[in-house]
Write the structure tokens for this entry.
Amino acid sequence: MMKNRDELGGETLLYHWRGTVTPSEWYENMQKKLEPIGYKDSKVEHGFLSIYTSKSDSTRYNKSSASEQVMKELKTLVDFYKTKGEEVSLTITGHSLGGALALLNAYESAKNFPRILISVISFAAPRVGNIAFRDELYQMGIKILRITVKQDLVPQMPGIVFNESLQKFNDFTGTLEWIYTHVGAELKLDVRSSPYLKRGFNFIGIHMLETYLHLVDGFVSTGSTFRSNAKRDVALVNKGSDMLIDELRIPTCWYQLAHKGLERNSYGRWERPKRDPEDIPSPIREEHKS
């Protein structure tokens, strides 16, 4: 979470949700069943909602859910600035899974703080919920910008076949509450617009956030070429992928910690640094014998 003073003199709170990292998150990403959220007909993907709301007493870091943690922090900040007589707005961003969680976060924030101006900017985000969920987000006044890449498959899921495109048949079928639909305005980018990126299919490389940021940096308009005075370092694209053309001679997946994380101790020997207690994984709970 970050905060920044906006042009109107209030505070803009910025929340960013990361993409998929752990195997359990990949598993939840595949849970395509729609599940009710709220009190109306709104439904969202079971896996995304599970990641956002799940908690467990058996772990050190998940005794409270992501939802509970972020809502607690947001209330603290809103109350703090309220005592100072300042208005607060909220901008939520996220990449991939993080884009899905950003929408759930925006939905819950609008429910709890209906007077706050809320915006969402997502990168490579999948579909999250049904038509009723989309409509409810619009009714709440949430502003949403989806940034996608034409060649990226993730924004096409879930609902590759059954999605918002079926709305044109509503006169015959009625509103289909079981189909997934995207939300917000879309900025669609194209890998082929950049002279620095390789052609061909590279699922992981195309989906990487650095690829998206590179394309955003060079974007002027749909009919324009990649801007020649783009300022973002092109080498960052290959930080964790192999997307840059060979002529640039930038190594693939070049980023790593200095000395691969090793540090030299007072005796001149290289060793792994001691981890902060808060950064140590939760020990497996042992069953107590009776």
